Amino acid sequence: MKNIFFNLIVISSFSLSITSCGNKSKSSINDAQTEVVDKTGKEYTSAYVCPMHCKDSGSDKVGTCPVCKMDYVVNKNHEHEGDNHEGHDHDNHDGHNH
Q1: What pLDDT score was predicted for residue 30?
Q2: Which of 14, 41, 66, 90 is deepest in the core (most CB within 10 A)?
Q3: Intervals of the chain under pLDDT 50
Q4: Contacts with 57 (C-beta within 8 Å, 6 or more apart), sequence order
Q5: What predicted TM-score, i.e. pTM, was given to this entire model?
């Protein structure tokens, strides 16, 4: 009976040590795979972008991504020349607000 109990303790201890070591190595692997994303490409800077930001996707017109075939969405961060509307009066615009 003592042998069975001893063997269970040894097996349990071994299993716990393998499990805890496995978690540490997984987090180390994930830390090593962390990469910096370059957001200067047209997949991030175009007026219309793919929701998945596929490489070299993006357009100045409505359309679909040539890579994943998803519909482009409006890029809320897009800056286009002339968007600041300088040079005209902003006070009385019928139909839209600034």
Answers
A1: 58
A2: 41
A3: 85-88, 90
A4: 42, 43, 49, 50, 65, 66, 67, 68, 72
A5: 0.48
The enclosing H or E element of 20 equals helix 2-32
Q: In angstroms, how far is CA 81 from the centroid of its own chain?
A: 27
| 86: phi then psi, degrees, rounded to nearest 5 | -65, 150
Measured distance CA(40)–CA(55) in Å, rounded:
11
Total Cβ atoms within 10 A of residue 43: 20
Structure tokens at 56: 């070299």
- List 64's β-bridge partners, or say none: 71
Cα distances (angstroms) measured from residue 42 to each of 48, 69, 80, 85, 89: 9, 16, 13, 24, 32
Nearest to 77 by CA among 97, 98, 53: 53
Six token digits for residue 40: 């200067």
d(CA 49, CA 73): 5
Amino acid 58: pLDDT? 94
